[in-house]
Protein backbone atom coordinates (compact mmCIF):
# COMPACT_ATOMS: atom_id res chain seq x y z
CA UNK A 1 0.00 0.00 0.00
CA UNK A 2 3.02 2.31 0.17
CA UNK A 3 2.56 3.70 -3.37
CA UNK A 4 -0.96 4.73 -2.46
CA UNK A 5 0.01 6.53 0.73
CA UNK A 6 2.86 8.78 -0.36
CA UNK A 7 0.83 11.85 0.33
CA UNK A 8 -2.22 12.38 2.51
CA UNK A 9 -3.21 15.24 0.22
CA UNK A 10 -4.15 12.79 -2.54
CA UNK A 11 -6.68 11.18 -0.23
CA UNK A 12 -7.89 14.46 1.20
CA UNK A 13 -8.65 15.66 -2.32
CA UNK A 14 -10.98 12.69 -2.60
CA UNK A 15 -12.72 13.74 0.59
CA UNK A 16 -10.96 11.26 2.86
CA UNK A 17 -9.88 13.20 5.93
CA UNK A 18 -7.04 11.26 7.56
CA UNK A 19 -5.38 13.96 9.61
CA UNK A 20 -7.63 14.04 12.67
CA UNK A 21 -5.68 11.84 15.04
CA UNK A 22 -6.24 14.03 18.10
CA UNK A 23 -8.62 12.70 20.73
CA UNK A 24 -9.94 16.24 20.94
CA UNK A 25 -11.78 15.48 17.69
CA UNK A 26 -13.31 12.39 19.28
CA UNK A 27 -14.72 14.20 22.31
CA UNK A 28 -15.78 17.55 20.84
CA UNK A 29 -19.11 17.89 19.03
CA UNK A 30 -18.67 19.21 15.49
CA UNK A 31 -21.25 21.65 14.15
CA UNK A 32 -22.17 21.78 10.48
CA UNK A 33 -21.31 25.47 10.27
CA UNK A 34 -17.84 26.98 10.41
CA UNK A 35 -14.52 25.66 9.21
CA UNK A 36 -14.86 22.32 7.50
CA UNK A 37 -12.31 19.52 7.70
CA UNK A 38 -13.95 16.59 5.97
CA UNK A 39 -15.79 15.75 2.79
CA UNK A 40 -19.21 15.72 4.39
CA UNK A 41 -18.77 19.28 5.72
CA UNK A 42 -17.85 20.42 2.22
CA UNK A 43 -20.85 18.64 0.75
CA UNK A 44 -23.33 20.18 3.15
CA UNK A 45 -21.88 23.68 2.84
CA UNK A 46 -22.56 23.55 -0.90
CA UNK A 47 -26.31 23.18 -0.41
CA UNK A 48 -28.70 25.69 -1.97
CA UNK A 49 -29.89 28.62 0.09
CA UNK A 50 -32.09 27.13 2.80
CA UNK A 51 -35.68 28.34 2.79
CA UNK A 52 -37.11 25.83 5.23
CA UNK A 53 -37.01 25.63 9.00
CA UNK A 54 -34.96 23.23 11.09
CA UNK A 55 -38.18 21.77 12.47
CA UNK A 56 -39.43 21.01 8.96
CA UNK A 57 -36.21 19.18 8.19
CA UNK A 58 -36.32 17.23 11.47
CA UNK A 59 -39.91 16.19 10.72
CA UNK A 60 -38.81 14.97 7.30
CA UNK A 61 -35.91 12.98 8.77
CA UNK A 62 -38.25 11.35 11.31
CA UNK A 63 -40.49 10.30 8.44
CA UNK A 64 -37.51 8.95 6.54
CA UNK A 65 -36.48 6.90 9.56
CA UNK A 66 -39.89 5.23 9.46
CA UNK A 67 -40.21 4.83 5.69
CA UNK A 68 -36.57 4.28 4.68
CA UNK A 69 -34.51 3.10 7.66
CA UNK A 70 -37.06 0.83 9.36
CA UNK A 71 -37.97 -1.29 6.29
CA UNK A 72 -34.28 -1.59 5.37
CA UNK A 73 -33.63 -2.93 8.88
CA UNK A 74 -36.37 -5.52 8.31
CA UNK A 75 -34.71 -6.55 5.04
CA UNK A 76 -31.25 -6.88 6.59
CA UNK A 77 -32.57 -8.67 9.67
CA UNK A 78 -34.26 -11.33 7.54
CA UNK A 79 -31.35 -11.60 5.10
CA UNK A 80 -28.81 -12.14 7.85
CA UNK A 81 -31.16 -14.51 9.67
CA UNK A 82 -31.29 -16.71 6.58
CA UNK A 83 -27.63 -16.35 5.63
CA UNK A 84 -26.12 -16.98 9.06
CA UNK A 85 -28.41 -19.69 10.42
CA UNK A 86 -26.03 -22.51 9.46
CA UNK A 87 -23.87 -21.79 12.50
CA UNK A 88 -26.80 -22.37 14.86
CA UNK A 89 -28.30 -25.24 12.87
CA UNK A 90 -25.00 -27.12 12.80
CA UNK A 91 -25.03 -28.01 16.49
CA UNK A 92 -28.70 -29.14 16.61
CA UNK A 93 -28.79 -32.89 17.30
CA UNK A 94 -25.04 -32.84 16.63
CA UNK A 95 -23.35 -36.21 16.09
CA UNK A 96 -26.72 -37.96 15.78
CA UNK A 97 -28.45 -39.20 12.60
CA UNK A 98 -30.78 -36.18 12.83
CA UNK A 99 -27.97 -33.60 12.78
CA UNK A 100 -27.29 -31.48 9.71
CA UNK A 101 -23.82 -32.88 9.02
CA UNK A 102 -24.91 -36.49 9.50
CA UNK A 103 -28.12 -36.07 7.47
CA UNK A 104 -26.33 -34.53 4.49
CA UNK A 105 -23.09 -36.49 4.94
CA UNK A 106 -20.91 -33.40 5.28
CA UNK A 107 -17.22 -34.16 5.67
CA UNK A 108 -14.01 -32.16 6.00
CA UNK A 109 -14.50 -28.61 4.80
CA UNK A 110 -17.98 -29.18 3.31
CA UNK A 111 -19.60 -27.04 5.99
CA UNK A 112 -17.15 -24.18 5.44
CA UNK A 113 -17.82 -24.30 1.72
CA UNK A 114 -21.56 -24.23 2.41
CA UNK A 115 -21.06 -20.99 4.35
CA UNK A 116 -18.61 -19.30 2.00
CA UNK A 117 -20.07 -20.28 -1.37
CA UNK A 118 -22.89 -17.80 -0.83
CA UNK A 119 -20.36 -14.98 -0.89
CA UNK A 120 -19.00 -15.97 -4.31
CA UNK A 121 -22.38 -15.14 -5.81
CA UNK A 122 -22.71 -12.05 -3.61
CA UNK A 123 -19.32 -10.69 -4.73
CA UNK A 124 -20.01 -11.26 -8.43
CA UNK A 125 -23.35 -9.44 -8.34
CA UNK A 126 -22.69 -6.47 -6.06
CA UNK A 127 -22.47 -3.88 -8.83
CA UNK A 128 -25.29 -5.35 -11.01
CA UNK A 129 -27.62 -5.40 -7.99
CA UNK A 130 -26.89 -1.73 -7.29
CA UNK A 131 -27.63 -0.84 -10.90
CA UNK A 132 -30.87 -2.84 -10.85
CA UNK A 133 -32.02 -1.20 -7.63
CA UNK A 134 -31.38 2.24 -9.12
CA UNK A 135 -33.31 1.19 -12.25
CA UNK A 136 -36.47 -0.22 -10.67
CA UNK A 137 -36.37 1.60 -7.27
CA UNK A 138 -35.96 0.14 -3.79
CA UNK A 139 -39.73 -0.17 -3.40
CA UNK A 140 -39.79 -2.87 -6.09
CA UNK A 141 -36.29 -4.28 -5.67
CA UNK A 142 -36.25 -5.30 -2.01
CA UNK A 143 -39.63 -7.12 -1.89
CA UNK A 144 -38.64 -9.01 -5.05
CA UNK A 145 -35.34 -10.28 -3.65
CA UNK A 146 -37.03 -11.14 -0.33
CA UNK A 147 -39.45 -13.47 -2.10
CA UNK A 148 -36.61 -15.05 -4.06
CA UNK A 149 -34.27 -15.72 -1.15
CA UNK A 150 -37.14 -16.87 1.10
CA UNK A 151 -38.08 -19.48 -1.49
CA UNK A 152 -34.47 -20.66 -1.75
CA UNK A 153 -34.07 -20.95 2.03
CA UNK A 154 -37.26 -23.01 2.30
CA UNK A 155 -35.93 -25.31 -0.43
CA UNK A 156 -32.84 -26.07 1.68
CA UNK A 157 -35.08 -28.11 3.99
CA UNK A 158 -35.49 -30.66 1.18
CA UNK A 159 -31.83 -31.12 0.17
CA UNK A 160 -30.43 -34.61 0.59
CA UNK A 161 -26.68 -34.21 0.12
CA UNK A 162 -23.73 -31.87 0.49
CA UNK A 163 -23.95 -31.03 -3.23
CA UNK A 164 -27.59 -29.97 -2.83
CA UNK A 165 -26.72 -27.76 0.14
CA UNK A 166 -23.86 -26.12 -1.75
CA UNK A 167 -26.06 -25.45 -4.79
CA UNK A 168 -28.82 -23.92 -2.68
CA UNK A 169 -26.41 -21.75 -0.72
CA UNK A 170 -24.84 -20.47 -3.94
CA UNK A 171 -28.28 -19.57 -5.29
CA UNK A 172 -29.04 -17.80 -2.00
CA UNK A 173 -26.20 -15.37 -2.71
CA UNK A 174 -27.85 -14.15 -5.92
CA UNK A 175 -30.86 -12.34 -4.39
CA UNK A 176 -28.99 -11.45 -1.18
CA UNK A 177 -26.13 -9.78 -3.08
CA UNK A 178 -27.96 -6.47 -3.10
CA UNK A 179 -28.99 -6.16 0.53
CA UNK A 180 -26.06 -4.24 2.07
CA UNK A 181 -24.74 -2.30 -0.97
CA UNK A 182 -28.22 -1.39 -2.16
CA UNK A 183 -29.24 -0.14 1.28
CA UNK A 184 -26.08 1.99 1.49
CA UNK A 185 -26.85 3.37 -1.98
CA UNK A 186 -30.51 3.88 -1.04
CA UNK A 187 -29.54 5.86 2.06
CA UNK A 188 -27.44 8.19 -0.11
CA UNK A 189 -30.64 9.30 -1.87
CA UNK A 190 -32.25 10.35 1.39
CA UNK A 191 -29.72 11.06 4.17
CA UNK A 192 -26.97 13.64 4.46
CA UNK A 193 -23.44 12.30 4.97
CA UNK A 194 -23.56 13.56 8.58
CA UNK A 195 -26.74 11.51 9.16
CA UNK A 196 -25.64 8.24 7.59
CA UNK A 197 -23.31 6.79 10.22
CA UNK A 198 -26.03 6.59 12.86
CA UNK A 199 -28.55 5.20 10.35
CA UNK A 200 -26.06 2.63 9.15
CA UNK A 201 -25.42 1.75 12.80
CA UNK A 202 -29.12 1.11 13.36
CA UNK A 203 -29.17 -0.81 10.07
CA UNK A 204 -26.25 -3.02 11.15
CA UNK A 205 -27.85 -3.61 14.55
CA UNK A 206 -30.34 -5.76 12.65
CA UNK A 207 -27.36 -8.04 12.04
CA UNK A 208 -26.77 -8.56 15.77
CA UNK A 209 -30.49 -8.96 16.43
CA UNK A 210 -30.75 -11.58 13.67
CA UNK A 211 -27.81 -13.52 15.12
CA UNK A 212 -29.48 -13.52 18.53
CA UNK A 213 -32.92 -14.48 17.21
CA UNK A 214 -31.41 -17.23 15.07
CA UNK A 215 -29.92 -18.83 18.16
CA UNK A 216 -33.19 -18.57 20.09
CA UNK A 217 -35.16 -19.98 17.16
CA UNK A 218 -32.71 -22.86 16.92
CA UNK A 219 -33.34 -23.67 20.58
CA UNK A 220 -37.10 -23.66 19.98
CA UNK A 221 -36.87 -25.65 16.74
CA UNK A 222 -34.76 -28.30 18.46
CA UNK A 223 -37.92 -29.37 20.27
CA UNK A 224 -39.65 -29.95 16.91
CA UNK A 225 -37.18 -32.62 15.87
CA UNK A 226 -39.19 -35.53 14.46
CA UNK A 227 -42.49 -33.64 14.26
CA UNK A 228 -44.20 -33.91 10.89
CA UNK A 229 -41.48 -36.25 9.72
CA UNK A 230 -38.98 -33.37 9.67
CA UNK A 231 -35.75 -32.90 11.54
CA UNK A 232 -34.99 -29.83 13.65
CA UNK A 233 -32.68 -28.25 11.06
CA UNK A 234 -35.36 -28.65 8.38
CA UNK A 235 -37.89 -26.80 10.54
CA UNK A 236 -35.43 -23.93 10.95
CA UNK A 237 -35.06 -23.45 7.19
CA UNK A 238 -38.80 -23.74 6.55
CA UNK A 239 -39.79 -21.17 9.15
CA UNK A 240 -36.94 -18.72 8.52
CA UNK A 241 -37.56 -18.95 4.77
CA UNK A 242 -41.27 -18.20 5.11
CA UNK A 243 -40.65 -14.99 7.08
CA UNK A 244 -39.20 -12.85 4.24
CA UNK A 245 -41.91 -14.00 1.84
CA UNK A 246 -44.64 -12.87 4.23
CA UNK A 247 -42.96 -9.61 5.27
CA UNK A 248 -42.14 -8.58 1.69
CA UNK A 249 -45.65 -7.10 1.51
CA UNK A 250 -45.00 -4.92 4.57
CA UNK A 251 -41.68 -3.75 3.15
CA UNK A 252 -43.29 -2.87 -0.20
CA UNK A 253 -45.88 -0.59 1.37
CA UNK A 254 -43.38 1.07 3.72
CA UNK A 255 -40.54 1.85 1.32
CA UNK A 256 -40.28 5.10 -0.62
CA UNK A 257 -39.11 5.28 -4.24
CA UNK A 258 -36.96 8.38 -4.87
CA UNK A 259 -37.12 11.91 -3.43
CA UNK A 260 -38.23 13.24 -6.82
CA UNK A 261 -41.11 10.77 -7.30
CA UNK A 262 -42.29 9.61 -3.87
CA UNK A 263 -46.05 10.10 -3.50
CA UNK A 264 -45.82 9.39 0.24
CA UNK A 265 -44.21 12.81 0.76
CA UNK A 266 -45.92 16.15 0.41
CA UNK A 267 -44.71 18.55 -2.27
CA UNK A 268 -42.97 20.59 0.42
CA UNK A 269 -41.25 17.50 1.86
CA UNK A 270 -40.08 16.45 -1.61
CA UNK A 271 -38.59 19.90 -2.13
CA UNK A 272 -36.70 19.74 1.17
CA UNK A 273 -35.56 16.15 0.53
CA UNK A 274 -34.11 17.13 -2.86
CA UNK A 275 -32.48 20.44 -1.96
CA UNK A 276 -31.12 19.85 1.55
CA UNK A 277 -28.05 18.07 0.14
CA UNK A 278 -26.07 20.01 -2.41
CA UNK A 279 -23.09 18.42 -4.14
CA UNK A 280 -23.25 15.21 -2.16
CA UNK A 281 -26.74 14.16 -3.21
CA UNK A 282 -27.52 11.06 -5.22
CA UNK A 283 -30.45 11.63 -7.54
CA UNK A 284 -32.84 9.53 -9.59
CA UNK A 285 -31.82 11.52 -12.66
CA UNK A 286 -28.14 10.58 -12.27
CA UNK A 287 -26.61 8.30 -14.89
CA UNK A 288 -27.05 4.73 -13.63
CA UNK A 289 -23.88 3.36 -15.23
CA UNK A 290 -20.80 5.23 -16.39
CA UNK A 291 -17.52 3.71 -17.58
CA UNK A 292 -15.66 6.93 -16.73
CA UNK A 293 -17.03 6.70 -13.17
CA UNK A 294 -15.96 3.05 -12.99
CA UNK A 295 -12.42 3.88 -14.13
CA UNK A 296 -12.31 6.93 -11.88
CA UNK A 297 -13.26 4.93 -8.78
CA UNK A 298 -10.64 2.23 -9.36
CA UNK A 299 -7.91 4.75 -10.10
CA UNK A 300 -8.31 6.41 -6.70
CA UNK A 301 -6.00 5.40 -3.83
CA UNK A 302 -8.89 5.65 -1.37
CA UNK A 303 -10.66 2.72 -3.06
CA UNK A 304 -7.82 0.37 -2.12
CA UNK A 305 -7.34 1.88 1.33
CA UNK A 306 -10.98 1.27 2.20
CA UNK A 307 -10.94 -2.16 0.57
CA UNK A 308 -7.90 -3.51 2.44
CA UNK A 309 -8.99 -1.94 5.72
CA UNK A 310 -12.49 -3.39 5.49
CA UNK A 311 -11.21 -6.86 4.55
CA UNK A 312 -8.95 -6.85 7.61
CA UNK A 313 -11.83 -5.61 9.74
CA UNK A 314 -14.39 -8.15 8.58
CA UNK A 315 -12.38 -11.32 8.16
CA UNK A 316 -12.57 -12.05 11.88
CA UNK A 317 -16.08 -10.69 12.38
CA UNK A 318 -17.61 -13.16 9.95
CA UNK A 319 -15.65 -16.11 11.35
CA UNK A 320 -16.76 -15.36 14.91
CA UNK A 321 -20.37 -14.74 13.88
CA UNK A 322 -20.53 -18.11 12.13
CA UNK A 323 -18.44 -20.28 14.45
CA UNK A 324 -19.19 -18.84 17.89
CA UNK A 325 -21.88 -21.48 18.63
CA UNK A 326 -19.45 -24.20 17.55
CA UNK A 327 -16.63 -22.72 19.65
CA UNK A 328 -18.85 -22.57 22.73
CA UNK A 329 -20.00 -26.13 22.14
CA UNK A 330 -16.68 -27.80 21.25
CA UNK A 331 -14.06 -25.58 22.89
CA UNK A 332 -15.88 -24.56 26.08
CA UNK A 333 -18.02 -27.72 26.26
CA UNK A 334 -21.35 -25.94 26.73
CA UNK A 335 -24.54 -27.81 25.86
CA UNK A 336 -26.39 -27.11 22.59
CA UNK A 337 -28.99 -25.01 24.39
CA UNK A 338 -26.40 -23.02 26.33
CA UNK A 339 -24.23 -22.50 23.24
CA UNK A 340 -27.11 -20.99 21.26
CA UNK A 341 -28.39 -19.04 24.27
CA UNK A 342 -24.98 -17.60 25.15
CA UNK A 343 -24.45 -16.64 21.51
CA UNK A 344 -27.76 -14.78 21.59
CA UNK A 345 -26.78 -12.96 24.81
CA UNK A 346 -23.45 -11.94 23.27
CA UNK A 347 -25.18 -10.48 20.21
CA UNK A 348 -27.89 -8.70 22.20
CA UNK A 349 -25.28 -7.07 24.43
CA UNK A 350 -23.53 -5.41 21.49
CA UNK A 351 -26.85 -4.25 20.01
CA UNK A 352 -27.07 -0.83 21.77
CA UNK A 353 -23.45 -0.07 20.83
CA UNK A 354 -24.49 -0.20 17.19
CA UNK A 355 -26.67 2.83 17.94
CA UNK A 356 -24.48 4.73 20.41
CA UNK A 357 -21.09 4.53 18.68
CA UNK A 358 -22.13 5.68 15.17
CA UNK A 359 -24.36 8.35 16.73
CA UNK A 360 -21.33 9.68 18.58
CA UNK A 361 -19.35 9.58 15.34
CA UNK A 362 -22.01 11.73 13.64
CA UNK A 363 -22.18 14.05 16.65
CA UNK A 364 -18.44 14.72 16.62
CA UNK A 365 -18.00 14.41 12.84
CA UNK A 366 -15.00 12.18 13.58
CA UNK A 367 -14.48 8.88 11.74
CA UNK A 368 -10.91 7.61 12.08
CA UNK A 369 -10.80 6.90 15.82
CA UNK A 370 -14.38 5.67 15.77
CA UNK A 371 -13.14 3.18 13.20
CA UNK A 372 -9.97 2.12 15.05
CA UNK A 373 -10.88 2.14 18.76
CA UNK A 374 -13.34 -0.82 18.69
CA UNK A 375 -10.70 -2.89 16.89
CA UNK A 376 -8.18 -2.17 19.63
CA UNK A 377 -10.72 -3.22 22.26
CA UNK A 378 -11.33 -6.57 20.58
CA UNK A 379 -7.69 -7.69 20.35
CA UNK A 380 -7.36 -8.76 24.05
CA UNK A 381 -10.34 -11.08 23.67
CA UNK A 382 -8.73 -13.01 20.85
CA UNK A 383 -5.36 -12.95 22.58
CA UNK A 384 -6.84 -14.63 25.68
CA UNK A 385 -8.61 -17.25 23.54
CA UNK A 386 -5.32 -17.96 21.78
CA UNK A 387 -3.46 -18.35 25.07
CA UNK A 388 -6.16 -20.58 26.54
CA UNK A 389 -6.16 -22.74 23.42
CA UNK A 390 -2.39 -23.18 23.54
CA UNK A 391 -2.38 -23.94 27.29
CA UNK A 392 -5.25 -26.30 28.20
CA UNK A 393 -4.30 -26.16 31.90
CA UNK A 394 -4.47 -22.38 32.00
CA UNK A 395 -6.74 -22.11 35.04
CA UNK A 396 -9.12 -19.72 33.25
CA UNK A 397 -12.77 -20.59 33.81
CA UNK A 398 -15.07 -21.24 30.86
CA UNK A 399 -17.26 -18.31 31.88
CA UNK A 400 -14.24 -15.99 31.76
CA UNK A 401 -13.33 -17.33 28.33
CA UNK A 402 -16.90 -16.80 27.22
CA UNK A 403 -16.61 -13.21 28.42
CA UNK A 404 -13.83 -12.68 25.89
CA UNK A 405 -16.42 -13.17 23.15
CA UNK A 406 -17.98 -9.85 24.18
CA UNK A 407 -14.67 -8.09 23.53
CA UNK A 408 -14.46 -9.81 20.16
CA UNK A 409 -17.87 -8.41 19.27
CA UNK A 410 -16.64 -4.85 19.76
CA UNK A 411 -15.09 -4.76 16.30
CA UNK A 412 -18.54 -5.03 14.72
CA UNK A 413 -19.48 -1.47 15.61
CA UNK A 414 -16.75 -0.12 13.33
CA UNK A 415 -18.57 -1.36 10.23
CA UNK A 416 -21.27 1.34 9.96
CA UNK A 417 -18.68 4.06 10.57
CA UNK A 418 -16.44 2.95 7.71
CA UNK A 419 -19.34 2.44 5.29
CA UNK A 420 -20.67 5.89 6.08
CA UNK A 421 -17.16 7.28 5.75
CA UNK A 422 -16.79 5.70 2.32
CA UNK A 423 -20.24 6.80 1.16
CA UNK A 424 -19.49 10.42 2.02
CA UNK A 425 -16.55 10.43 -0.43
CA UNK A 426 -18.68 9.37 -3.42
CA UNK A 427 -20.82 11.69 -5.52
CA UNK A 428 -23.68 10.74 -7.82
CA UNK A 429 -25.46 7.42 -8.39
CA UNK A 430 -22.76 5.94 -10.64
CA UNK A 431 -19.98 6.54 -8.09
CA UNK A 432 -22.15 5.34 -5.20
CA UNK A 433 -23.07 2.16 -7.09
CA UNK A 434 -19.49 1.28 -8.05
CA UNK A 435 -17.57 2.64 -5.05
CA UNK A 436 -20.06 1.37 -2.50
CA UNK A 437 -20.10 -2.08 -4.09
CA UNK A 438 -16.29 -2.17 -4.11
CA UNK A 439 -16.24 -1.44 -0.38
CA UNK A 440 -18.87 -4.08 0.40
CA UNK A 441 -17.04 -6.57 -1.85
CA UNK A 442 -14.33 -6.62 0.78
CA UNK A 443 -16.91 -7.97 3.25
CA UNK A 444 -17.72 -10.84 0.90
CA UNK A 445 -14.06 -11.60 0.26
CA UNK A 446 -13.37 -11.46 4.00
CA UNK A 447 -16.21 -13.92 4.53
CA UNK A 448 -14.69 -16.36 2.07
CA UNK A 449 -11.19 -16.02 3.52
CA UNK A 450 -12.45 -16.19 7.10
CA UNK A 451 -14.39 -19.41 6.56
CA UNK A 452 -11.51 -21.26 4.93
CA UNK A 453 -8.87 -19.85 7.25
CA UNK A 454 -10.79 -21.27 10.21
CA UNK A 455 -11.33 -24.51 8.31
CA UNK A 456 -7.60 -24.84 7.57
CA UNK A 457 -6.61 -24.08 11.15
CA UNK A 458 -9.16 -26.52 12.47
CA UNK A 459 -7.87 -29.30 10.23
CA UNK A 460 -4.27 -28.53 11.19
CA UNK A 461 -5.12 -28.42 14.89
CA UNK A 462 -7.32 -31.50 14.81
CA UNK A 463 -4.39 -33.88 14.69
CA UNK A 464 -2.69 -32.57 17.82
CA UNK A 465 -4.93 -30.33 19.84
CA UNK A 466 -8.52 -30.69 18.66
CA UNK A 467 -10.77 -28.86 19.15
CA UNK A 468 -8.23 -26.07 19.77
CA UNK A 469 -7.84 -23.18 17.34
CA UNK A 470 -4.45 -21.74 18.28
CA UNK A 471 -3.13 -20.84 14.79
CA UNK A 472 -6.52 -19.41 13.90
CA UNK A 473 -6.75 -17.30 17.02
CA UNK A 474 -3.20 -16.02 16.64
CA UNK A 475 -3.77 -15.06 13.04
CA UNK A 476 -7.03 -13.34 13.91
CA UNK A 477 -5.47 -11.26 16.65
CA UNK A 478 -2.52 -10.41 14.41
CA UNK A 479 -4.83 -9.38 11.58
CA UNK A 480 -6.75 -7.07 13.86
CA UNK A 481 -3.60 -5.52 15.25
CA UNK A 482 -1.91 -4.99 11.89
CA UNK A 483 -4.76 -3.69 9.70
CA UNK A 484 -4.28 -0.21 11.14
CA UNK A 485 -1.01 0.06 9.23
CA UNK A 486 -2.96 0.33 5.98
Rounded average pLDDT: 78
Largest sheet: none
Helix content: over 70%
What's the domain count? 1
Strand fraction band? under 5%
SS summary, helix count: 22
Identify the CATH homologous superfamily. MFS general substrate transporter like domains
Q: Alpha-carbon distance between the termini? A: 7 Å
Do you know the CATH architecture? Up-down Bundle
Structural class: mainly alpha
Shape: globular
Name the poorly predicted regions: 1-23, 31-47, 455-486
Classified by CATH, the class is Mainly Alpha
Rg, nearest Å: 22 Å
Output the CATH topology.
Answer: Growth Hormone, Chain: A
Report the count of strand segments. 0
InterPro entries: MFS, MFS_trans_sf
Subcellular location: Membrane
GO cellular component, one term: membrane
Membrane topology: Multi-pass membrane protein
Concise overview:
With 486 residues, the chain is mainly alpha-helical.
Amino acid sequence: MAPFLRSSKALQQEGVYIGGWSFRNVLTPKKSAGVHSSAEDTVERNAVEQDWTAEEERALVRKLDLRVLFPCCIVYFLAYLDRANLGNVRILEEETPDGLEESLRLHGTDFNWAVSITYFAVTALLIPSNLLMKKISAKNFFPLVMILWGTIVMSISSVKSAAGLLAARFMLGIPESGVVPCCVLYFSFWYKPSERSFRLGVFHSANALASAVSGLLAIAMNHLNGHGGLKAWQWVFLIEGALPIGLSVVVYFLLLRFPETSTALTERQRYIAIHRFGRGSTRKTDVTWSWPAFIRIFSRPSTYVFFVSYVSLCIVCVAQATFLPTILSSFLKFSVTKSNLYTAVCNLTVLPLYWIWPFHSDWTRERMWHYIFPVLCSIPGYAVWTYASAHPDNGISNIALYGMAFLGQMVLISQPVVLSYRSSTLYGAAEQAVGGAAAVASLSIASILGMHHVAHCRLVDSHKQAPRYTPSGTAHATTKASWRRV
